[in-house]
Amino acid sequence: MEYSEIRKRIVAAGEKAVKELIKVAEGKIITDDESDLTADKLKNAAAAKKLAIFDAFEIMAKIEAEQAALSDEGDTKKKDSFGGFAERRASGRKK
18, 71, 72, 74: most buried, per Cβ within 10 A? Predict the structure, then answer.
C-alpha cells in the first residue's frame, strides 16, 4: 500500500474518532437512574467530557495538518524542480 494512501486512511479513521468523541461530550452526566451521584463521580464524568473535547480538537488539528501535507505532496509532484538550495534561493530573490 502506498504511503499517501495509508495517510488518507488514518485521516478517515481520525474523522470517525472525532465523531465518537463528540457523542461522548454530548452525553448526559446525570441520568434518571443515577440521581444520587457523589461529587467525585460528577467530577470524573466532567473530566472525561473535557478530555473528549480536547482530544477531538487535537485530532482535528492533526487531520487538517495531514490534509494540507497530502495536498502539498500532490502539488510538489507536479512542479518542476530547478536544482538545489542555491537555485531556489536565487529564483525567489528580487532586485
Answer: 18
- Per-position DSSP letters for 31-87, written without gaps between them: -GGGTT--HHHHHHHHHHHHHHHHHHHHHHHHHHHHHHHHHHHHHHHHSPP-SSHHH
Residue positions counted in the chain: 95
Inside any domain, residue 48: yes
State which residues form the domain around 58: 37-74
Per-residue pLDDT tens digits for 15-69:
999 999 999 999 888 766 656 667 788 888 899 999 999 999 999 999 999 999 8
Where does residue 12 rank: exposed (0-12), middle (13-18), buried (19+ CB within 10 A)? Answer: exposed
How does pLDDT run across 55-69, given as a tens digit for each residue?
Answer: 999 999 999 999 998
**Residue 6 near residue 75, CB atoms below 8 Å:** no
Residue 82 in domain:
no
